[in-house]
Write a structure and sequence with these properties.
With 602 residues, the protein is an alpha/beta fold. It has 21 helices and 20 strands. The strands form four sheets. The protein has an eight-stranded mixed beta sheet with strand order 9-17-15-10-14-11-12-13, with helices on both faces. It has a seven-stranded parallel beta sheet with strand order 3-4-2-5-6-1-7, with helices on both faces. Strands 18-20-19 form a three-stranded antiparallel beta sheet. α11 (379-386) crosses α13 (411-433) and α13 (411-433) runs antiparallel to α17 (488-499). The longest helix has 25 residues, at 5-29. It is globular, with a radius of gyration of 26 Å.
Length: 602
Amino acid sequence: CSHFESKYIRFIEKFAERRFLTKEKESSSGEKSSFDPFLVGGRTQSGKTSFKAVCALTCNKMQLPLVIITKGVAESKELYAKLKDFLGDLAVSEYLVTPSRGQPRDYMKFTLHKFGVIVVADTAPQINRAANAVSEYLDSDPTKRFAVIVDECDDMYRTTGRTQKTEQAYDRLMAMDPIMKLMISATLVPLIVNMKNDNESVGWFEFIEPLDDYASIEDMKVFTDADGKQVFLSGRELSLNSHEDIPYCNEKALSFYRYAVNSPGVKGTLVLDVTCPRVKAEGNIFDKAERIQRIHNQIIVVAIYGKGIRYKTDIDEEWEQAEKGTCIGEVLEELDVEYGLEWPIFVFGFSKMQRGMSFRSNQRVPSHILLSLGDGYSTEGMIQALGRATFNGKHILRTNGFQNVTVLTRDRDWDAARAYQHFLVNIARKVKAKKLDEAFSEEFGWKSNFLHGNKRKCGKSKEFRGALEDICFEDAPSDDDEVLEMRCGELHAQEALMHNEDANAIYDVVVKCARKYPCISKTSVRVRTEEILEEYIDYTDEKMTKSKLKRQLNWLHTSGFLKKFKGVDDDEWEVTCKGGSTRMSKKQRRNDDHRTPQEVSI
């Protein structure tokens, strides 16, 4: 905690000022005041829990009950355990409650009156239970106030119309005017965009830099082949049938597993596999884990899913179910004690490996991660999943013989994940001095351009991505070694395009089609599938079916070269020029009379 001391002091000063000024104002006016939210950003797994513990203690001293909303039931249990550990023997730890552990409902009301802490999962029933208890607490005395922390706050913005029951329960709680709304996440962009769209202001914004012992996304090393060349996944390379026997696998993944198992002079190997979304259907995480264990029989496999955690220590043994409520860290610790650090452990999962969970024991931290999420997952979901292999404890990694965490992931995701970190640091710095609108209107450095080549949506709703399209980023310098390093995923995608003859030819045709349009937006042009098909046949004098064309266009989309938009009658494909991407109006795209040839810079 000493590392964050100055941040804590600034927070306590700001919060104390708000608390005591509010008391004075409300006692004279008799009306409750509303406040702009506090924002806290940081890296994944970088120690933000200690900030929540300081908030809990501060609220208790100021006689304010605290409600913490976090991602998932299992994750709320883990946060509860971490807070218990942080708060130790302090009085507030006696008044810490979570419905996820089945504690009595009346105890929640009792906790509020003792200025304690309620930890709830981001489900409608749990948030409504907290809201009911808070409502009764406030009704007992109109002068009472409470505070709220929203952990993984960007995940609470899921639909533009706020139609989900969880969103409605959350809005109900927030409508009770908490004196402090502290929003915490490593992926704050959707929240910031939502606040900007609603013309909200930020009360206080702090970005917490991690400890020197923190292993970050930037510290990771991309997996390399025998020749030292970086290896990436392209688009939808891993699928149910990408390997004849193992679901969501291919030769790259098998080489990655061999590298993890056979690295000399290491111990405590921990491989995280976030590729297979199936739990019950054929080709699920258990099938994949068993088949990998059959190849490498000196490993332990663990599967984490909605109903709990299972592990298998030998190919001839059955899966064992961990006790209900056990955290993944506790399972890893038990396996370390029983089998030692010499046995590599592979953890397979999907939804439970995207937020909130810490995958480590006291002497074992992630050493490798294989990540491949489908195109429908957001940029934030991808970064949070990659962040499962970040942690405080770089010295443990080094003690176990590793210099870096090794990663195998999709090329464009790798570039976007690192650029996102730069963007958050910069937006936090800008917002401290300016309003949100002003901060977004300023130019950002090229290193912050996490939209470059990244076709994923931002946040749960596709509309959030549109609000980011007008951000101005500097152009990256040409022939610069730093650009080559920061955008090594893009270079891999370009190489993959050169080796895909069909896709390469079709891409040339899309560019040729684009040159028939005025580049009104100065940055992009859209063309329809039917136009591309006609131009391809004229240009190559070869036959091409529309279904085959769409397959290659979809490949170009997932590889970051085109953007796909659903049109009324036909799909449309956007070619992005230098400087960004902006959409043209339908009238501009469809008015054939005003189309004139124009060079498009790709």
